[in-house]
Specification:
Elements: E1 6-10, H1 20-30, E2 36-40, H2 46-52, E3 59-62, H3 79-85, E4 89-92, H4 95-98, H5 105-118, E5 121-126, H6 130-134, H7 138-149, E6 160-163, H8 177-194, E7 202-206, H9 214-217, E8 225-228, H10 235-243
Parallel strand pairs: 1-2, 1-8, 2-3, 3-4, 4-5, 5-6, 6-7, 7-8
Length: about 250
C-alpha cells in the first residue's frame, strides 16, 4: 500500500443539494486522513460541491465524459465542461457504462484521450462478468480491456486503474483474496510492460466495498486504493472506509 492510498466515492445517480452536509462531513474527516479522498457526484452537484469544498483536500470528479469538446450531442457532457464545473478527475469505462450503455473499449480509450486533453485525471475501470469468470476468461477479458481501453497517450500522464468485477458490484459479494490479488498483479504487470515501468499512482479495487471489509482489502497485494459505491453516500460509512487506510 502506497504512502497515500486513494479512496474514491462514486455516487452514481444519487444526490441532490441536500447532500452537501454529507460532503462537508467527509471533508472534515479527510483533513486528518492518511488517504487521498475523491468524490464523483452526479454532474449537477459539481458546482455546488466545488463551492462548498473551496479549501478542501477532497477532490471532485465526473462519472463519464464525451469524446468531443463540444457539439450537437444532446444530453452529453464534455471533459472540458466537467473541468469548468470544478472536476479534476473522471471515471471512465465503469461496468455500468460498458454494459448498460454498450460502451466498447475503443470508446473508453477515446474518452480517456478527451480527459487528458481537458486536464482531467482518469480512473479507468475494467472487470469481468460472472459468466466470463466461470468460463475461465478472466485474464483474457482483463487483458483485452487494458490493451484496448488505455491509449498510448497515457504514457507520462497521471492515471489510475480500477478493477471492479461486474459480479461484485452492488451484490454484497466480494472476490476471494486470491482472486483480487491475481487481478491486481495482472494489471500491474501489464502497466509496467506497456508504459515502461511508469509509476501508476493507484490501482484500485471496487465492488461491494464496505466499512467492515475496507481495511482488509487495503492489505492485499496490489490494492492501493478503493472505488466505493453505495457506502460513499453517507459520511458515517465513507469516513470509516477513509479511516481504514490510516
Amino acid at each position: 500500500m502506497p504512502k497515500h492510498p486513494l479512496i474514491a466515492g462514486n455516487w452514481k445517480m444519487h444526490g441532490l443539494r441536500e447532500a452537501i452536509p454529507e460532503v462537508l462531513a467527509i471533508d472534515a474527516a479527510s483533513r486528518s486522513a492518511r488517504a487521498s479522498v475523491a468524490i464523483f457526484p452526479p454532474s449537477t452537484l459539481l458546482c455546488p460541491m466545488r463551492e462548498a469544498l473551496a479549501d478542501s483536500p477532497v477532490r471532485l470528479g465526473g462519472q463519464d465524459c464525451h469524446t468531443e469538446p463540444l457539439g450537437a450531442f444532446t444530453g452529453d457532457l464534455s471533459a472540458e465542461m466537467l473541468k469548468d464545473a470544478g472536476a479534476d478527475m473522471v471515471i471512465l469505462g465503469h461496468s455500468e457504462r460498458r454494459h448498460g450503455h454498450k460502451e466498447a473499449c475503443e470508446g473508453v480509450a477515446a474518452k480517456t484521450r478527451a480527459a487528458l486533453r481537458a486536464g482531467l485525471e482518469p480512473i479507468i475501470c475494467i472487470g469481468e462478468t460472472l459468466d466470463q469468470r466461470q468460463e475461465g476468461l478472466t485474464h483474457a477479458v482483463l487483458s483485452k480491456q487494458l490493451r484496448d481501453s488505455l491509449p498510448e497517450t497515457l504514457e507520462g500522464q497521471t492515471f489510475h486503474v480500477a478493477y471492479e468485477p461486474v459480479w461484485a458490484i452492488g451484490t454484497g459479494h466480494v472476490p476471494t483474496d486470491d482472486q483480487v490479488v491475481d487481478a491486481m498483479l495482472l494489471i500491474q504487470k501489464h502497466l509496467a510492460k506497456r508504459f515502461h515501468n511508469q509509476v501508476v499512482p493507484h490501482t484500485l479495487y471496487g465492488g461491494s466495498v464496505k466499512p467492515d471489509n475496507a481495511r482488509h482489502l487495503l492489505t492485499l497485494d496490489g490494492v492501493d486504493g478503493l472505488l466505493v459505491g453505495g457506502a460513499s453516500l453517507k459520511a458515517a460509512d465513507f469516513n470509516r472506509i477513509i479511516a481504514a487506510a490510516d
